[in-house]
Amino acid sequence: MIAFENVSYSYGGSALLSEIGLRLSPGSFHFLTGPSGAGKTTFLKLCYGELLPSTGRITLFDREVRGLTRDDVAAMRRRIGVVHQDCQFIDHLPLAANVALPLTVAGREGDLADLSDLMGWVGLGALSDALPPQLSGGERQRAAVARAVIMSPDVVLADEPTGNVDWEMSLRLLRLFTELNRMGKTIVIATHDMNLIRAAKAQVSARVLRIADRRVQLAGADL
Amino acid sequence: MRLPRFLADFIAAGRRSDRVVPGSGHTAWLTGFAAGAMAFLAVFALALSLAAGRLADRWSGALTHTATIRISAPADQADLQTRAVLEVLETTPGVAGARALTDEEQRALLEPWFGPDLPLDSLALPRLVEFTETAGGYDATGLRHRLAAEAPGAVLDDHTRWRRPLAVAAERLRLLGMASIGLIGLAMAAMITLAANAALAANGPVIRVLRLVGARDRFIARAFVHRFTLRALGGAAVGTALGMAGVALLPAADPAGGFLTGLGFRGTGWLWPLGLPLLAAVVAHVATRAAAFAKLRELT
User: Fold this and answer.
1) Could you count the other beta carbons within 10 Å of the beta carbon of residue A130?
2) Quick one: fold of A2-218?
3) Core-most of A49, A52, B20, B279, by most CB within 10 Å?
4) Model confidence at A223, in pLDDT bands (50, 70, 90)?
5) Where are the domains of chain B?
6) How close, in Å, is residue B215 to chain A by CA atoms?
7) Looking at beta carbons, which residues of chain A come within 8 Å of B19?
8) What is the mean pLDDT of the segment spanning B249-276?
9) CA-to-CA distance for B192 and B188, rounded, in angstroms?
């Protein structure tokens, strides 16, 4: 589904990631860990074509990212739900319209039946008409998760999706991800939260990738 | 009245995109105003062009196939030379008919310059013989030679000497009017491109979010194209209406053929300016679309 072959990424002349070779299979569940600044966000951006590798080859859904047109990238992103760390929204649209944005741009506004259920699931049912600037950090994070999964994408990439929410909500969001994974979706979550990883391992077969010394390694089961 | 399907689809698709992109604020008003001002100017350029075209046609057409022979001879020879000229013309191949202008006709010709009480008898005016030529035309050089032999005071004036520069000037004026419309269109395209670029740059964060959730460039561009096209159409419609009203209020053309009083539209010519708002909309559509796709590649 997503494959890295000897991928390196440099920024400003210095290598941030190097010699990465891995394959994220359909239906797999991975956590991505590592110290701050290690390159977790960069790795995720490489996964959805926001960044291109300096060297090496990345394949998304069996297509090399370098050969994708802008329309191809757009089509690819409808199959990949992304939760950004900074949770960007369109400020003049109500929260519900922001969450439904992937459906709107894909011309699938008829598929909005589950929107209110999803908003309720992430605890934002009462805030459907609120504007993004009125939301707290945690609420924005939950809305970003809802937006990332509303299209039921093949892959969900989440960058610290539980960084600003309490433990109870973290578990709730984790359950959303594990349910999607049981439906065959591929999940990659970048996090520092070891408790979240342990909680996930109790529910699904999750693997842990660790970025250290510019390389991505498969961590042992001792986490 | 139902809108044409392509227009209805364009508006519906634009509204879908429109919802997700915030209003363009002052650029919207500027676009409408610029389109209106340009359309207003284009109406006058069009009026100028059409009037110049009519003038060129009149100057070229009315004087074609006619010529004049001026006879400057002493009073006792004037009638003799006039008859000689008429005889020469009768036997000249390519001349369809000829006649000498009467004193009344000559007085009428001179009246605008010297007034109605012109004492023709006391003035040594040349006699004038007007003739028309056949479609095949006549040999002007041969005729001049024959006139020199038969009527030494006769001078052939085939009008081309002064008709051609006037017709050329009128034709160039017509082209100048058309070029002005072209320049107005280009200036409008440039202004709309700048306004669209400003609107796109101001919406950079929105565009990044849209690209993140899988929006294609044409979905994003459509919102801007839709807005700028409709604003240009609306602004140009108002500008055209004002321009047409201005032209309608110009003084009516007088038979003396004053160029400025002939500036305006005649008959079906009034339909021409109605195409200007559509032209403005097409210019806005093309300019915004090109600007939007270029800017989107730059922004994301």
Assistant:
1) 16
2) Rossmann fold (3.40.50)
3) B20
4) very low
5) 5-60+164-299, 64-158
6) 5
7) 93, 97, 104
8) 76
9) 6
